[in-house]
TrEMBL record:
Gene Ontology MF annotations: DNA binding; sigma factor activity
InterPro entries the record matches: RNA_pol_sigma-70-like (IPR039425), RNA_pol_sigma-70_dom (IPR014284), RNA_pol_sigma70_r2 (IPR007627), RNA_pol_sigma70_r4_t2 (IPR013249), RNA_pol_sigma_r2 (IPR013325), RNA_pol_sigma_r3/r4-like (IPR013324), WH-like_DNA-bd_sf (IPR036388)
Keyword Repeat: no
RNA polymerase sigma-70 region domain segment(s): 9-76
Residue intervals of the RNA polymerase sigma factor 70 region 4 type domain: 103-154
Organism (species): Methylacidiphilum caldifontis
Protein name stated in the entry: RNA polymerase subunit sigma-70
Organism phylogeny: Bacteria, Pseudomonadati, Verrucomicrobiota, Methylacidiphilae, Methylacidiphilales
């Protein structure tokens, strides 16, 4: 497929691709992004694709796979629209949210090094378990157990703080 054939294919199939993407994600902005990504991938592989029917199938398969990746990423990270974020971060709560984030970081720093490093690589650097195993040169199962145990330890530290806050409030009320 040369550049001219690609442009013709784009003009013929953009609307169908957009309609399909919109039916998948039900969000016009995300649908535009998915279609754009799919056509970029198609353009980078245009020399490898020769049959026009297979190109259309390939495009829709690519769209679907990009959508699945997007959904997987959204499950891993909470997605909020800007309006929701503004409601969530009203002026009076900004300090509390920042303080809580700082406390979570402090709790994370209290963890033993193996757990702390695994959690940082997974959640902050967004590495996969396999990538973490390669970086740390440890077995995949060890990475999985460190992340599982690290999350449990971190949760326990955070919950301990919440219970300490409740105790402090009840002491203030009683005095």
């Amino acid at each position: 497929m040369n550049k001219h054939e690609f442009e013709k294919f784009f003009e013929e199939h953009y609307k169908d691709a957009y309609r399909f993407a919109l039916s998948l994600c039900r969000n016009s902005d995300q649908a535009c992004d998915l279609v754009q990504q799919a056509f970029v991938v198609l353009y980078t592989h245009k020399e490898e694709l020769k049959n026009g029917l297979k190109v259309k199938n390939w495009l829709f398969t690519t769209l679907y796979r990009l959508f699945l990746r997007l959904k997987k990423k959204e499950q891993r990270f909470q997605y909020m629209e800007i309006e929701e974020m503004e409601d969530f971060l009203v002026e009076e709560n900004k300090g509390a949210v920042l303080m809580d984030c700082q406390y979570v970081v402090d709790c994370l720093l209290q963890l033993d090094e193996p757990y702390r490093i695994a959690l940082i690589l997974y959640y902050m650097d967004e590495l996969t378990y396999l990538d973490i195993a390669q970086v740390l040169k440890i077995p995949l199962g060890t990475v999985m157990s460190r992340i599982f145990r690290g999350k449990k330890l971190l949760r326990d530290l955070i919950l301990a703080r919440k219970s300490n806050k409740k105790k402090m409030k009840s002491l203030k009320v009683k005095v």
